[in-house]
Design a protein that fits this description.
The structure is a single chain. Among the domains are: 314 residues, Up-down Bundle (ABC transporter transmembrane region fold); 73 residues, 3-Layer(aba) Sandwich (Rossmann fold), CATH 3.40.50. Helices cover 63% and strands 9% of the residues. It is built from 21 helices and ten strands. A six-stranded mixed β-sheet has the order 6-7-8-3-9-10, sandwiched between helices. Strands 2-1-4-5 form a four-stranded antiparallel β-sheet. The radius of gyration is 35 Å and the shape is elongated. The protein starts with 11 loop residues before the first helix and ends in a 9-residue tail after the last helix. It binds adenosine-5'-triphosphate (ATP). Adenosine-5'-triphosphate (ATP) binds next to helix 12.
C-alpha cells in the first residue's frame, strides 16, 4: 500500500535514455547548438592546417601578399568562430536551463501525486534538495554533455587523421597515450560520481536540518536552546565539509593524473619529432604543425575531462531525481474509476482495518499494529456524527481514510453505496471538506488563503464565506483588509483567526460531506458560539463527521461515536452515553471534574 521503493536505482543505460528523452521537445535548438559546436570544432582544426600551409608555401621573401590574404582568412574564421561561440554559450546554456526546468516541473507534478505516506516518511528539506540543488548541475550537463562529447570526438578524430596523413610514426605516438587516458577516465568516473552523490546526500541532510531548525526557531528561543541548535547544525555542516573534501580529492586525483598524461604527450611529440627529423623523415614545419596538432589533440581531451566531471555530478543528481520519479503513487484512480456526482452522502465503514506501518512498508502487518480494526460505522446522508475518545484512539485516522489520504487495508468504505476506491480521487476529494486540527495557511494574502477553497471564486463569494466563518470583521479591521499578508503559515494571525480562515475555505468549497477535526478548539467562547451556529447551518443537509476533544462542543450532536484503540466502544446521544456510565461518561467527567481527571490514567482504566 505504500508509495514504494525510494532507493530503487535505475540502470545506467535506462537513466541515459530517460535523460535523452528530455531533449525531444527542444530538438531544433539542440540541433542548432550542435551545428554551431561542430563549426567551432572545424575552425579549430582548420587553424593548424592553415598555419602549416602558410609556413610551407606562403613565406616567400619579397611577396607576402598571399600570406596576408591567408591571415585575413584566419581573422575572418575567428570572427565567425566568435559568433558561433556566442550562440553555443547563450543558447546552449538556455537549452540546459529548459531541460532542467522540464525535469523540475515533472518532479514537482510527481510530488503532487504522492500520497500522505510519502510525506510522512520524507523530510521536507530532503525533498526540497531534490527539487532544487540536485538538478542544478543538470543544466551544465544537458548543455555541455553532448556538445563536449561531440566536439571532442570530432576534433580528436580530425587531428589524428591529419597527423596520420603527415606522419604515421607521430600518429602512433599520439595513439599510445590515448588508451591510458581512457582507462584512467573510466576508473575516475566511478569515484567522482560516488563522491558527488555523497555531497548531494549531505546537502539534503543540511537542508532538512535547516528547515526544521528555522521553522522551530521560536521554540529554540523559548527553551533557550540556541546553543543546542548550533551544535546540531555544526555536526551536519562538518559532514558536508568532509563530503566535499572527499569529492575534491577524487577530482584532484582525476585532474592531476590526466594533466600528467597530457604533458607526457607534448614531450613525446617533441622527442619523436626530433628523432624523425634526425632520421630525415620529417621537416621542421611538419614538426611545428605536428606540435600544433598535439595541442589541438589536447583541447578535446580537456573537454572530455570536463565532460567526465560534469557527467559525474550531473548524473548523480539526475539519478536522485529518478529515485523519486520511480516511486509509484499507490493511491491513484483505477482504470474504470467513476466520477462521484450528485452526492447524497450516505457513508459506510465496513469492517475497516488500517495500519500506518503497513501503509509505509507495503507488507502485511501484525494485528496489534493496526490503528483501526473491524470498524463498522454507518452515517446516513445529511446526519452529523461526533467522534470522541482518548488521544491516539484513531479518530483522525478514521476520517483521513474517507478522502483516501491513506488507503484502507481491510474492509471498505462506501459513499452512496460506491466503494471509494472505485471513484476518481478528484471527484471524491472535491465532495469532502476538511477543517484540519493543524491549520495550514500559505504565505500570501488572506483573500488567496480563503480562495484556496475554490480557486475560481469571485470576490463577493470570498467575502460571503468570510462572513459566515465570522472572520469578515477581523479582516476589515486589518490595514490591508483582504489583501493583508498572513506571513509564513499565518504567523501574523491569532490561532482563532487562522481557524476561522480555514473554516471560510470550507464555506467557499461548499461540499456535501464535511470533516471537522477539532474545528473550534482555538476560539474564544463568543466566537465559538457564533461558529458553532454557522457550522450547524453549514452541516444542515450534509453528512458531517466532527472530531472533538472538548465534549462541550458535541453535547448536542445527534449521534456520538466513542472510539479508542480497541475500536468503536459506544454509540448514542450525549444523555444516553452519560447515563450508561461507560467510557464517554468517564471522559466527560474527566473534563469537567478535576477529581475524575486524576482518576483517569489511560484507555485501559476506562473499561466500564
Ligand atoms: P488525537 O485526538 O490526539 O488527535 P486521534 O484519536 O485522532 O488522536 P490519530 O491521530 O488517528 O488519533 O492516531 C492514531 C494512532 O496512529 C496514534 O497511535 C498515532 O501515533 C498513530 N499515527 C497517527 N498518524 C500517524 C502517521 N502519519 N504515521 C504513523 N502513525 C501515526
Amino acid at each position: 500500500m505504500a508509495a514504494k521503493s525510494p532507493r530503487k536505482r535505475t540502470s545506467g543505460a535506462k537513466a541515459l535514455a530517460v535523460f535523452a528523452s528530455y531533449y525531444r521537445p527542444h530538438f531544433p535548438l539542440f540541433l542548432a547548438d550542435m551545428f554551431c559546436a561542430s563549426l567551432i570544432a572545424g575552425a579549430d582544426l582548420a587553424f593548424p592546417v592553415m598555419t602549416k600551409y602558410a609556413l610551407e608555401k606562403l613565406i616567400t621573401p619579397g611577396n607576402l601578399k598571399r600570406l596576408f590574404i591567408m591571415i585575413g582568412f584566419m581573422v575572418l574564421l575567428y570572427i565567425l568562430r566568435t559568433a558561433f561561440s556566442f550562440f553555443v554559450t547563450y543558447w546552449g546554456h538556455t537549452l540546459g536551463a529548459y531541460i532542467e526546468a522540464d525535469m523540475r516541473r515533472d518532479l514537482f507534478a510527481h510530488l503532487q501525486k504522492l500520497p500522505f505516506s510519502f510525506y510522512d516518511n520524507h523530510r521536507t528539506g530532503h525533498i526540497m534538495s531534490r527539487v532544487t540543488n540536485d538538478l542544478f548541475e543538470v543544466t551544465e550537463l544537458a548543455h555541455h554533455g553532448p556538445e563536449d562529447l561531440f566536439i571532442s570526438l570530432l576534433t580528436l578524430l580530425g587531428s589524428f587523421l591529419i597527423v596520420l596523413f603527415m606522419s604515421w610514426e607521430m600518429a602512433l605516438v599520439l595513439l599510445c597515450l590515448v588508451p591510458l587516458m581512457i582507462v584512467h577516465t573510466l576508473v575516475s568516473r566511478v569515484s567522482l560520481m560516488n563522491s558527488s552523490r555523497s555531497v548531494k546526500e549531505k546537502i539534503a541532510e543540511i537542508n532538512a536540518s535547516l528547515e526544521s531548525s528555522i521553522s522551530g526557531a521560536r521554540l529554540a528561543k523559548a527553551f533557550t536552546n540556541e546553543g543546542y541548535e548550533n551544535k546540531k547544525f555544526r555536526g551536519g555542516n562538518e559532514f558536508l565539509k568532509n563530503a566535499k573534501k572527499g569529492y575534491y580529492k577524487s577530482m584532484a586525483d582525476f585532474h592531476s593524473k590526466l594533466e600528467f598524461m597530457t604533458s607526457l604527450l607534448n614531450v613525446a611529440v617533441i622527442a619523436a619529432g626530433a628523432l624523425l627529423i634526425a632520421a630525415g623523415r620529417m621537416t621542421l614545419p611538419e614538426l611545428i604543425t605536428a606540435n600544433l596538432f598535439a595541442s589541438a589533440f589536447l583541447q578535446p581531451i580537456r573537454r572530455l575531462q570536463n565532460f567526465v566531471e560534469q557527467y559525474s555530478t550531473g548524473m548523480a543528481g539526475f539519478n536522485r531525481f529518478l529515485e523519486i520519479m520511480a516511486i509509484k503513487p499507490d493511491i491513484i484512480d483505477r482504470k474504470d474509476a467513476v466520477t462521484l456526482s450528485n452526492v447524497k452522502g450516505d457513508i459506510e465503514y465496513r469492517d475497516v482495518g488500517f495500519s500506518y506501518s503497513e501503509a509505509r512498508n507495503g507488507s502485511r502487518d501484525s494485528d496489534e499494529n493496526f490503528v483501526l480494526k473491524g470498524i463498522r460505522l454507518s452515517i446516513p446522508a445529511g446526519t452529523t456524527v461526533a467522534l470522541v475518545g482518548p488521544s491516539g484512539g484513531g479518530k483522525s485516522t478514521l476520517c483521513h481514510l474517507l478522502p483516501r489520504f491513506y488507503e484502507v487495508q481491510e474492509g471498505s468504505i462506501t459513499i452512496d453505496g460506491a466503494d471509494i476506491r472505485n471513484l476518481t480521487l478528484e471527484s471524491l476529494r472535491r465532495n469532502i471538506g476538511i477543517v484540519q486540527q493543524d491549520v495550514f495557511l500559505f504565505a500570501g494574502t488572506i483573500r488567496d488563503n480563503i480562495a484556496y477553497g475554490r480557486v475560481d471564486a469571485a470576490a463577493e463569494e470570498i467575502i460571503e464565506a468570510a462572513r459566515k466563518a465570522e472572520i469578515h470583521e477581523d479582516i476589515m479591521a486589518m490595514k490591508d483588509g483582504y489583501d493583508s499578508i498572513v506571513g509564513e503559515r499565518g504567523i501574523t494571525l491569532s490561532g482563532g483567526q487562522k481557524q476561522r480562515i480555514s473554516i471560510a475555505r470550507i464555506f467557499l468549497k461548499n461540499p456535501p460531506i464535511l470533516i471537522l477535526d477539532e474545528a473550534t478548539s482555538a476560539l474564544d467562547s463568543v466566537t465559538e458560539f457564533k461558529i458553532q451556529q454557522a457550522l450547524t447551518e453549514l452541516a444542515r443537509g450534509r453528512t458531517t463527521l466532527i472530531i472533538a476533544h472538548r465534549l462541550s462542543t458535541v453535547r448536542n450532536a445527534g449521534r456520538i461515536v466513542v472510539l479508542d484503540d480497541k475500536g468503536i466502544r459506544e454509540e448514542g446521544r450525549h444523555e444516553e452515553l452519560l447515563a450508561s456510565g461507560g467510557l464517554y461518561s468517564t471522559l466527560y467527567h474527566s473534563q469537567f471534574s478535576p477529581e475524575a481527571s486524576r482518576r483517569w490514567q489511560g484507555p485501559d482504566s476506562l473499561s466500564p
